[in-house]
Amino acid sequence: MKKPSKILALVLALMLVVAMVAACAEEAPPVADDPVVDEPVADDPVVEDEEEPAPPADDEPVVEDTADDVDLHVALVAHGPESIQFDGSFNEGAWWGIVEFLEGQGLDPASNAAFFQASAADDEARIDTMLLAIEWGADVLILPGFHFAASVYEAQDLFPEVMFVVLDTRPNGGDGPREAANTVSILYAEEQSGFAAGYAAVMEGYTELGFMGGIAVPAVVRFGHGFVEGADYAAAALGLDEGDITINYHYIGGFAPSPEVATMAGAWYAAGTEVIFAAAGGAGFSVISAAEDAGTWAIGVDVDQADDSDRVLTSAMKALGVSVNDMLTDFVNGNFRGGSNLLFDASVNGVGLPMDTSRFSNFTVAQFDAIMAQMAAGSIVVSTVLPEEGGSTDPNDLLDINLVNVNYIS
Fold first, then answer.
1. What is the CATH code of the structural domain delimited by 6-189+320-347?
2. Considering the chain, what is the average pLDDT of its residues?
């Protein structure tokens, strides 16, 4: 689906703000379409020794032209004041999945979709914001991000008539994850997407790489570990020697853009780093800005960020819009998979690189297809190990690395 123009996006945003103001004035507090690009289903980030998440089904019929039969209202809820709608990353990817679904149903996103932003970065504010969305009329709440684990655990029982789609985490009240009958959790195999990005960068010819993660939460850790393992795998495929590939590796401590992040990225570039993978939400724009100043490269995350800058080499993507569209399609078909924990990985085009918009000169579509097929078949298994609570986040301590030299900056 072609994205609306920036002017249309602004008009839509203004209409959504009006809807939110009206709500506050009352004091109320899928058969999936194939993804447009090849995009990896993440291992359970909360508990171990549990059944693996089921892959998303792809055999339910798509419902079309059902506006006369369906009057569905969908709300995207952001976890806090810094989590904006059009963030060029996670929230925005989920939002366009909502828009695409509604338009496919003949419904108007301007009246059938709304964006709600929690007034504070805590669980009480998130639940209050969910209530605002429900009183606006939401039938389905889309909740992007690991921040929602505790709040949706409570909300799914408080509001049993509402359907919840949680992205990147699972409802967890502290005694383990639990999806109620009105909740479905979507996880992604970030390690496979990161692997593809690291593999591609080395196959493209780069030897001085960087990884900047936001916070060492499961999704970000998997992106970074995959990036290191992909680079290591490519080094072996090219017959390189130990130490020929170097990766600066750092968790910056947040997801907001800042001059400090841009300064650090600029220092890396000045010291010889050729490409930095920024798995850091909005902070990635600070890395992209530094890449523009240095005339070097950045790798985007979550969605295709090629349009954000001509210095974006590629993007380690998750099928955010596709997965949201799938779950909403399930709902209108009467097949909502409440109580499920679904995994979008390479086997269902749930992760990958946008080869149509990537700026590679050497790495080919055939090479990309081959490496993704190996991950989908299980002949390449990327590590999903996570740091222990309070333990080391250094990839050198957590991964079996053969050729790449990882310079971990704590």
1. 3.40.50.2300
2. 87
